[in-house]
Amino acid sequence: MSSVLKVENLCVSIDEKLILKGVDLEVRQGEIHALMGPNGSGKSTLAYALMGHPKYELVDGRISIDGESLNELEPDARARKGIFLAFQYPVTVPGVKVADFLRHAVTNVRNPNRKEGEGLIPMREFRAELKSRMEELGIEPEFARRYLNDGFSGGEKKRMEILQLAMLRPKFAILDETDSGLDSDAVRFVSEAISRLAGPDMAIIIITHHERLLEFNRPQHTHVLLAGRVVERGDARLAHELHDQGYTGVRQRHPEAAAEEQAAADAGNRQPAAAR
Amino acid sequence: MATDLKTTDEEIGIGEYQYGFHDSTANYVFTARKGIDRDIVTQISEMKNEPAWMREFRLSSLEMFFRKPLPTWGGELRQLDFQDIHYYVKAAQGQERSWEDVPDEIRKTYDRLGIPEAERKYLAGVKAQYESEVVYGSLQEDLAKQGVIFTDTDSALRDHPELFRQYFGTVIPPADNKFAALNSAVWSGGSFIYVPKGVKIEFPLQAYFRINSENMGQFERTLIIVDEGASVHYVEGCTAPTYSSESLHSAVVEIIVKRGARCRYTTIQNWSSNVYNLVTKRAMAYGDSLMEWVDGNLGSRLTMKYPAIYLMEPGARGETLSIAFAGKGQHQDAGAKMVHCAPNTYSRIISKSISKTGGRASYRGLVKVANGATGCKSNVVCDALLLDSDSRSDTYPYMEIDEDNVVIEHEASVSKISDEQLFYLMSRGLTEAEASSMIVTGFIEPLVKELPMEYAVEMNRLIELQMEGSIG
Ligand SMILES: Nc1ncnc2c1ncn2[C@@H]1O[C@H](COP(=O)(O)OP(=O)(O)OP(=O)(O)O)[C@@H](O)[C@H]1O
Ligand SMILES: [Mg+2]
């Protein structure tokens, strides 16, 4: 039976400021969803909140997989439940080798009941698997020995996120602008790689401002965020339309949310520079 | 009764310390009464059957010790009561060449510390010092045949009197500082190494220092002479049981690296949190030689240690890699000294410190370039990582540059463990403890990767142990 990730009335604030104002979302393993919305509408916030970032406070609502709440779970526990986030801005961890980090991560995610300090997955097996995933993604083998994202170009960082996705094989993958900062060949390459990884066991939530990723990974569902609310839903055609025409139409159809968006932007601008 | 595994973990907050067990002291051969005075010093010298000159050396050093004031910089020393310490404790009768002959309880301790195993696997020679005396010693036969001497310092005084007297006390005279004077008065044990011209020792020589009894002072004295074109890697490890009262470890290490020779001295100090570790280490590096200190300070209550290299002739190079880890109730005041006495000499200091749960790590370093020492280069990098807001890090870099034509670089950074790094790693399934541990391991990686494999593994393991249970 396929799992369902359910988000109900999710309200999230950062530093006391309410960003998400009651988001609902239902994603089933195997589905592809597009999450769209203008800059600052809350897409990354939703992604971080699903992953359990400590700074993103859940003021109301519920996140669950197959009815089991994730609200109280730390990010690592959520990862072990099958959630994965490809970061919009991957973090650099100097001195930590990609292979060492991934071996640890893969061990924990594949053996969710592993106790700290228990053995890691066998080195040979892991190396072989890592090597073939890297080949498939066109990542040079030396990257396994490099320090995590340290000195990587923007495009290399994004590929590294997809490598982690390929190794961890989550049930629910959120891709936050994985296609931004890539040249057009790389976008194509990454899009194809993702479509190969997708399948009945993985749901993909794609956050993007571009078309390419969605051409290769055609969404069954599109959700449009505006000022922290889902204001429209549709299928692949809606994503296509927004890409063509921008968000003017959405704002006209939802004047209240548009006003909130404007108010938030004004508030941001009015703040003295020192406070920002 | 063999070992007592009960420790006062809760009281002193070092639940992670693995070597806090101690053995019974019932069968000890001799324990000097507590305190220090002329009688004790004379008694030590007599028990060791030393020549008169050494007794005089000890007694005059004792006078210097009494005269010199406690340092007012560095760490807090006022709680250290010099009269509440046993200055000489002899646990076993003699030094053995086979582990089978070492008294059971002592041998078991070294088994638990993994020394005999390491010896079988990758060491060229071993000295095991237990309390004041060396209880076990070995050296590969082919090295002995090539004229290598690896013995305890007491035996060296007896068996190699000329060589001994030529170098002993020449690098660090008793008057150098209060603790050097104290060591000179009551020294016992330590390693004596002589590597003849051109002999390159491939595998490390290791000494292992263990304090067992309470209120114990360990004062080993190490002297290493690396003759022209020779090379050696010497490694020392140190542990002690966890007690609620203080012990004192105050060693003196003197090294002479002759023309074209190499010496690397690696310390992995992992004393329990009741040990004051006040050590003077200094090397003289002659023409085109290389001296390296690799200094890992993970334990003790207070460590004050600044391994020094005097670059005596052109082409000499000195390098110090220092790692300090200060946990709860610990102060690591560590660093390095580089003294450029000759032109075209080179030095590098890399220091990495980590402080957690209220620990304090200080880097204290000196780079000195004498007038006329033109063309010298020195590069100092010190990075500190704070794991929480209770912990503290300070940097005291001193420069005394009396020459214009030199290149001196200094960089320092202090960083906090970042929430974004933690979140990123945790989002991949690592627990908070695993993620912190990984960030710390990454932080020291540039240093650890310079170590031979076995020691790199050991260092990472110790850091992981220190990190365990650190997340509340
Ligand atoms: N750490 C923070 N502190 C304060 N406000 C924040 C923080 N992070 C995000 N916000 C605010 O939350 C709102 C939503 O931001 P979010 O990053 O989720 O937008 P987004 O939809 O991902 O935009 P983009 O398309 O530009 O990536 C924005 O107004 C942003 O300024
Ligand atoms: Mg975003």
Provide tags for this entry.
heterodimer; A: 276 residues; alpha/beta; Rossmann fold; 4-stranded antiparallel β-sheet; disordered C terminus; B: 472 residues; 2 domains; 12-stranded mixed β-sheet; globular; disordered N terminus; binds adenosine-5'-triphosphate; binds magnesium ion
Explain how this protein is built.
The complex is a heterodimer of chains A (276) and B (472). Chain A has one domain (4-275): Rossmann fold (3-Layer(aba) Sandwich). Chain A has 10 helices and 10 strands. Chain A has helices at 43-51, 75-81, 98-110, 123-136, 154-168, 184-197, 212-216, 236-245, 248-253, 255-270, and strands at residues 4-14, 17-28, 32-36, 56-65, 68-69, 83-86, 172-176, 203-207, 221-226, 229-234. In chain A, the strands form 2 sheets. A 6-stranded mixed beta sheet of chain A has the order 6-7-8-3-9-10, sandwiched between helices. In chain A, strands 2-1-4-5 form a 4-stranded antiparallel beta sheet. In chain A, helix 5 (154-168) runs parallel beside helix 6 (184-197). Chain A is globular, with a radius of gyration of 19 Å. The termini of chain A are far apart. By secondary structure, chain B is of the alpha/beta class. Chain B has 2 domains: 9-305, no CATH class; 417-472, no CATH class. Chain B has helices at 9-12, 38-47, 52-67, 104-112, 115-122, 141-145, 153-159, 161-167, 178-186, 419-426, 432-448, 453-467; strands at 3-4, 22-23, 30-31, 89-90, 125-130, 133-139, 149-152, 191-195, 205-210, 217-218, 221-226, 231-239, 247-249, 252-257, 262-269, 275-285, 290-297, 302-305, 308-311, 317-326, 331-340, 346-355, 360-369, 377-386, 392-401, 407-416. In chain B, the strands form 4 sheets. In chain B, strands 7, 8, 10, 11, 13, 14, 16, 18, 19, 21, 23 and 25 form a 12-stranded mixed beta sheet that branches. Bound molecules: adenosine-5'-triphosphate and magnesium ion (MG). The site of adenosine-5'-triphosphate has 13 residues of chain A, from strand 2 and helix 1.
